[in-house]
Amino acid sequence: MQAYSLDRPERLRAHLALQRRLYEVRPDGQGGQHWQTVSSQDLHAFEPAAEPPPFSAKSFFFAERELLFRFEGGQFYSALPQVVPQVLFGLHACDLQAVAYQDQFFVNDPHYQARRQASLLVGIDCLHSCAGGFCSTVGSGPAVRQQTADLILLPRQSEDADWLLLVASEAGQAALQGLQLPQADDDWQAERVANEARVAAQQGAQEEIVAGIVQLNLDAIDSSTWEELGLRCLGCSGCTSVCPTCSCFAPLEQTSAQGGLQRERVWDSCLYQGFQQEASGHNPSATAGQRVQRFWAHKFGDAFKERFAAYGCVGCGRCDRVCPGAIGVHGVMHRLARP
Predict the structure, then answer these.
(1) Most C-beta atoms within 10 A of its C-beta, which of 93, 182, 241, 293?
(2) Is residue 266 domain-shared with residue 161, that is, in the same domain?
(3) CB-side exposure of 117: number of CA atoms within 13 Å?
(4) C-alpha to C-alpha distance for 146 and 2, rounded to whole angstroms
(5) 64 lies in the same domain as 24
(6) How far apart are CA 63 and CA 81, in angstroms?
(7) Which helix (H) or strand (E) element contains residue 216?
(8) In this structure, are 152 and 268 located in the same domain?
(9) Mean pLDDT (whole number) for 255-268
(10) What is the SS3 assignment for 67?
(11) pTM exceeding 0.85
């Protein structure tokens, strides 16, 4: 990767925002943080969050609700989204890994791909572990993988040192045109390795996560354990909404007064009771325990890892923070590790 020295990340942000709509995670004034639009004239200091925001970048590509097509006058009309070039500035490594996962899941989906191809992803390496994170265990961080981003920001340990800017794709190199930056020293690779080792040490061995994955893939968890966990699931869909790799959706058809029809798709959740119910009335996931089992099989199943080259869990810990039943990833894997 080509490496440059960057005096201020705000300089890069302003340059990218000249030609694209740029989004950055910022405080919302109510104690939370959300993606917000930033103009090229914005002088607000770039302050990377200590942990990923409550909501990942998923909705930028896989819309929560969108029109797929409409049928009028005996004709079908596609409804591809109107897209504008956009930049997501300051994505954490785990969220970028999730985007790469979704890229494969939606590889043949024109709606997803229209948005994705119009997007430039600027990642940022993590220097410290976030609370509840275990990205080093599942291989999704803390350093941004080259194939998941276009540009990578690397903050330095010393506050008065320049940032590093790594170019990870041809699109990233093209986006820097007109921005004169000096090349960085050659020791940045060792710096990234040291950062990764420090974060991995902070996160620890995560023995329960590792043991739980093994038990799950050995099919060593009996149904009573899953039903025990299912009793604590409220079916609120909090975990599936914030999970950056969840991709379940349902079709929604509506008719017009003129007799036309339009089909939309909306986010759905495999933890809803009727998610898998068939037209015959049969439901292969009729119990909450079966649904919880299915969910975690998708996150840590070896078959999914082989297909997508990564687990469906990127170690961000969002499910732990939103689950009212305390069966986010750490709660579940703690139980699975002790069958």
Answers:
(1) 93
(2) no
(3) 11
(4) 11
(5) yes
(6) 10
(7) helix 207-217
(8) no
(9) 87
(10) strand
(11) yes
Length of the chain as a residue count? 339
Pick from 7-16, 148-157, 250-259: least confident: 250-259
Considering the domain architecture, whether residues 191 and 245 belong to the same structural domain is answered as no
Which domain covers residue 323, as residue numbers? 207-336
- Are 275 and 246 a contacting pair, CB within 8 Å? no
Read off the pLDDT of each residue in 36-53 and give the average, rounded to a whole number. Answer: 91
Q: Which of 166, 159, 160 is nearest to 143 (CA)?
A: 166
- Among residues 106, 208, 124, which one has the least CA distance to residue 166? 124
Residues 40 and 25 in one domain: yes
Structure tokens at 151: 């540009």
Nearest to 97 by CA among 278, 291, 284, 308: 308
Adjacent-strand bridge partners of 167: 2, 151
Closest residue by Cα to residue 8 from 157, 122, 163: 163
Per residue in 200-224, pLDDT (tens digit) is 999 999 999 999 999 999 999 999 9
238 and 173 share one domain: no
Domain C-terminal end among 203, 234, 256: 203
> Element (H or E) spanning 173, and its range?
helix 170-175
CB 269 within 8 A of CB 249: no
The C-alpha atoms of residue 314 and residue 312 are separated, in whole angstroms, by: 6
Q: 255 is written with which tokens? A: 């008719």
Task: Please report the pLDDT score of residue 260 as a whole number.
Answer: 86
